[in-house]
Design goal:
CATH superfamily: Heme oxygenase-like
Shape: globular
Number of strands: 0
CATH topology: Heme Oxygenase, Chain A
Number of domains: 1
Distance between the termini: 18 Å
Radius of gyration: 17 Å
CATH class: Mainly Alpha
Strand content: under 5%
Order of helices and strands: HHHHHHHHHHH
């Protein structure tokens, strides 16, 4: 019997999703205010997060883990796209120039911890990040491209899923996969709880970036942009 995990994740993370979009950094981003320095630091943080995620998913898939191997969709992988973006922002020696922030390192540590202790919980992080990126990616790409006056691809590869031809069809397949994972309701509840922790990890990264954003655009403008909170237009949908 299907546990409808896709629906449970969508419903169970709605509040956390809204809270994430109402952080100052994301609120400014959605209103078209994007500082290139803050943004490239976010790209660097995401590189470390996705490197950890894809390392652990690859390891568990190779070991034929019954849950993780089911959600291992290579077409979702972001590490190579992030490497291209980092080369654009930091130059050819980008790897020597980037370091994870404290929040990003905590996020990475959490991924490695649960991969070792309870790998099934990685589903919560996988859903939160990859399906969130796929759902809102094109909107965010257009905002970033316009705000930073970038060409179509330069520094924006993170948002491009070249191996996914039909986003809607893929998300239907992903939902079906979630609904048929070999787990019980107790584990489903734990995965939803972990997905909310994933949102908290992301919010911590956004909050670290707010300082440099305020320095770039000014405290008064920052306060004006973040005064009116809003529901996000990039909410995850995979039904």
């Amino acid at each position: 019997m299907s546990l409808a995990l896709a629906r449970q994740l969508r419903e169970g993370t709605k509040k956390a999703h809204t809270m994430a979009e109402n952080t100052g950094f994301v609120s400014c981003f959605l209103k078209g205010v994007v500082d290139k320095t803050s943004y490239r630091n976010l790209v660097a943080d995401l590189f470390f997060v996705y490197s950890a995620m894809e390392e652990e998913i690859g390891r568990l898939t190779a070991a034929d883990h019954p849950v993780i191997s089911s959600i291992s969709f290579p077409e979702l992988n972001r590490r190579e796209s992030l490497e291209l973006d980092l080369a654009f922002y930091f130059g050819s020696h980008w790897l020597e120039a980037v370091r994870p922030t404290s929040a990003a390192q905590s996020y990475v540590d959490r991924i490695h911890q649960i991969a070792s202790e309870c790998p099934e919980l990685l589903v919560g992080h996988h859903y939160t990040r990859y399906i969130g990126d796929l759902s809102g990616g094109q909107i965010l790409k257009k905002i970033a491209q316009k705000a930073m006056n970038l060409d179509e691809h330069d520094g924006l590869r993170f948002y491009e899923f070249d191996l996914i031809e039909d986003e809607k069809a893929f998300k239907l397949k992903y939902s079906a996969t979630l609904n048929n994972l070999p787990i019980d309701q107790q584990m489903a509840d734990s995965i939803v709880e972990e997905a909310n922790k994933a949102f908290q990890c992301n919010m911590a990264m956004f909050q670290e970036l707010e300082g440099s954003l305020i320095a770039a655009i000014g405290k008064v403008l920052y306060g004006f942009l973040t005064r009116n909170k809003r529901l996000g237009s990039t909410e995850i949908t995979n039904n």
